[in-house]
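Protocol step 6 of 9: fold each sequence in the batch and record its structure tokens directly after the sequence line. For illustration, a two-sequence batch is reproduced in full.

Sequence one:
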Amino acid sequence: MSTFEKMISGGYFGNLCHFTFQTASKENYFTPGTTSAILALNELSSEDVNLFLTNPLAGKGALSLVVTEKTDIESCLKIVDCLMNRAAVLVAANLAAVVLRTNKGKTPEHPVLLTVEGSLYYKLHNFRTQIERYFREYLSGERKRYVEFKEVRHSSLVGAALAALIN
């Protein structure tokens, strides 16, 4: 797997948060109770992180169960926001580069159609909004392009099937 994918993929996001929380714990960033609870966590899924983002006090998911102090909740939310923001910037920059390279989408009548796959994009709280905000910032001013985001379920599979049929 490439480093880029590990920074933006839902399959790695929980592990990335887990590693970051454990590192912060070892540097005494959290209260003692939260520190020991986080260090005792064996893993953290992207779903656990999403449950925490959606409602940190609900007690759903591993992170919500171990981070209960108000200051630690705020700190964890800041950490996740930084990691999400980094991933959103990377995804948006990558997509914007592709759109600019194609030199398409210069008029609203002929926008570039973008399909995005991935659990993080569709399921992680506010992640899609962050990506699309950065994307529109990148493609503004003299780089203005018109795009339409469209969900196509299993688009890679559908694309591969169409390619096989065409050939």
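Sequence two, same batch, same settings:
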Amino acid sequence: MKALTDQQVRDYRYNGYLYPVPALKPHEAAEALRNLERSEAQLGAPLTKAELKWRGATHTYLQWANDLCRHPRVLDIVEDVLGPDILVYWSTFFIKEPGSATFAAWHQDATYFGIEPLEHVTAWIALSDASREAGCMDVISAQGTPRQYRHDAKRLEHSINGAGQEIVEPVDESNVVAMELKAGELSLHHTLCVHRSAPNRAAHRRVGYGVSYIPAYARLTGSYRLPAMLVRGKDRWGYWDVMPERPRADFAPEALDYHTYAYTRFRENYYEMEARHVAQYSGSAANA
């Protein structure tokens, strides 16, 4: 049974985003928040204060985050835009503490991922309310013609993105949309969707879990081979290292080892794509 209507799928294709889509029941979102707090207690710090690596690929070392990536309702939604053979490429917690200066400048996910074809979609699952006040995502419609913009990895202070990347060419802000979500809802955004987010001015944590889903026929264009987790259908192409299905326990030693491997490979690929992006646009400028 389809989770999205035909019109919702058309809207996603045209705009590059879709929201709000009901995903988790209220008790499921509340339980996920409790699990996050428990995991942070085990780490000894909130994810916003802990080493950056703990925010990414959490599905490799936390059972409950792995289960969230596999949530049947979430996968039904993703299948309607990606097809039946689905891999999880990456997952990241995007958390803004109350009153924090954390933000994201205008950027596109595709810039430093190096995945083709460009069909990667992020399911951004709200575990707490993500209102304008709390610093929800702003998006700009592609109006049916998405394209890659030039970026600079500026390492901006207070950026929620590790590279602090920012689009460095003009962006038409005449049709900016604030993707406000209630806890338990999700948004979808395409890998070329131009998006940003403002600081959290609310009195509560803004907690989102971004899961990067790709069709199993997608592949990396760089030098590295990375792990990915099959969550629905079949992988008949073999472009990715098969990831263990589920950690046997949160923070299990073998899961932490695998997380280190996955995170290291992700960063290596990321830096290679960052350098490729710089070279591409430097070459364009030289030939202009």
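Proceed to step 7 once all outputs are recorded. Observation for sequence two: The CA atoms of residues 4 and 56 lie 28 Å apart.
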